[in-house]
Write a structure and sequence with these properties.
The protein has 68 residues and is mainly alpha-helical. It contains 3 helices and no strands. It has a domain of 44 residues.
Length: 68
């Protein structure tokens, strides 16, 4: 199998458009993990998945209301 050297010319554009390949980029996932941890910390720990879902629902509703 011959390497596709021509594809390297498009690599930067593809990464900018689509993001890093799965299992290579971790910054986005780490920041999302922080959001989940913050939502979990402010819960009563009786039903953390419900509390996290409620936090995200409230934030989403607020974004929708503010955007008009």
């Amino acid at each position: 199998n011959k390497p596709k050297i021509h594809q390297l010319q498009h690599l930067v554009d593809m990464i900018q458009q689509l993001g890093p390949a799965p299992l290579f980029g971790t910054k986005k996932f780490k920041s999302y993990n922080t959001v989940l941890c913050e939502a979990s910390v402010h819960s009563n720990h009786q039903s953390p998945s419900h509390d996290i879902a409620t936090t995200f629902m409230t934030a989403n509703l607020l974004c929708m209301l503010l955007s008009g």
